[in-house]
């Protein structure tokens, strides 16, 4: 339960959960420079963890940036499994009242005070940390995975076979391998595996600048709901960008 980092962000700051996942991994990895092997047991949610940009992100860390020597992702058989992050969220007091984003920030800040408090990164105050990873990776990797990700149980990226990813559909079967990088003549990036020295990184540009607008339908719903809140919250909802 030590060193639990949470990212506090609202829909005005970002819209892609995948971007926050990559930011959190970057911050954790470069905060522990001696870490070279990374093994992740994660949810099998296809939209977040089993797509070409997510696999490409880990391939970037091994093949181009040489930040890691080995990455292994293990997916449970069930689509959604109870993992460590679910356990952490379960520590939040469900009886707390929270109407505004800063209220939720305080709720998380007050949790786990007796053992190990959450380390909270407020994305609203540091919006520059959300990078345009998807667009950045689109220039380096194929648009579609060259294999079916849904039945995948394990995926490996190693320095020894850095140009390829290895995957298998069982926990003890043989590995197949495929390349996520398009043929050289079809690439839209000049980045090669020799351009970056070990430890050097290449970061995408900032993904969002300023607050994002919300849809008119959501704005109307919030105007109907705000009557149940205090006057301060009603003022906040009145000034949402749309």
Protein topology:
Elements: E1 5-8, H1 17-31, E2 37-41, H2 46-49, H3 52-64, E3 70-74, H4 84-89, H5 101-110, E4 119-122, H6 133-138, E5 154-158, E6 165-168, E7 176-178, H7 216-225, H8 231-238
Parallel strand pairs: 1-4, 2-3
Antiparallel strand pairs: 3-5, 5-6, 6-7
Structure characterization notes:
It is a single chain. This protein folds into two domains: 5-211, no CATH class; 214-242, no CATH class. The protein is 30% helix and 12% strand. It contains eight helices and seven strands; from the N terminus they run E-H-E-H-H-E-H-H-E-H-E-E-E-H-H. The chain has a five-stranded mixed sheet, covered by helices on one side. It has a two-stranded parallel ribbon with strand order 1-4. The model has no long low-confidence stretch (mean pLDDT 80).
What descriptive keywords fit this protein?
242 residues; alpha/beta; 5-stranded mixed β-sheet; 8 helices; 7 strands; 30% helix; globular
C-alpha end-to-end distance: 40 Å
Report the radius of gyration as a whole number of Å: 20 Å
Helical amount among residues, as a percent range? 25-40%
Main sheet overview: 5 strands, mixed
**Strand element count:** 7
Strand order of the largest sheet: 2-3-5-6-7
Shape: globular
* Series of secondary-structure elements, N-terminal to C-terminal: EHEHHEHHEHEEEHH
- Give the structural class: alpha/beta
Low-confidence stretches: none
Task: Note the total helix count.
Answer: 8
β-strand amount: 5-15%
């Amino acid at each position: 339960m030590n060193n639990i980092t949470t990212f506090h962000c609202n829909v005005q700051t970002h819209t892609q959960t995948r971007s926050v996942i990559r930011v959190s991994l970057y911050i954790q990895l470069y905060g522990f420079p001696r870490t070279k092997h990374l093994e992740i047991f994660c949810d099998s949610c296809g939209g977040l963890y089993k797509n070409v940009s997510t696999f490409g992100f880990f391939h970037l860390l091994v093949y181009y940036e040489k930040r890691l020597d080995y990455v292994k992702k293990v997916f449970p058989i069930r689509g959604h499994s109870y993992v460590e992050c679910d356990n952490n969220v379960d520590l939040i007091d469900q009886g707390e009242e929270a109407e505004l984003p800063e209220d939720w920030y305080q709720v998380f800040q007050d949790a786990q005070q007796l053992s190990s408090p959450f380390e909270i990164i407020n994305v609203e105050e540091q919006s520059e940390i959300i990078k345009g990873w998807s667009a950045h990776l689109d220039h380096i990797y194929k648009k579609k995975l060259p294999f079916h990700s849904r039945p995948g149980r394990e995926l490996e990226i190693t320095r020894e076979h850095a140009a390829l990813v290895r995957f298998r559909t069982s926990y003890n079967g043989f590995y197949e391998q495929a390349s996520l990088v398009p043929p050289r003549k079809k690439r839209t990036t000049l980045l090669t595996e020799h351009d970056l020295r070990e430890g050097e990184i290449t970061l995408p540009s900032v993904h969002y600048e300023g607050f994002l607008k919300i849809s008119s339908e959501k704005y109307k719903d919030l105007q109907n709901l705000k009557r149940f809140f205090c006057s301060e919250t009603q003022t906040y909802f009145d000034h949402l960008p749309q």
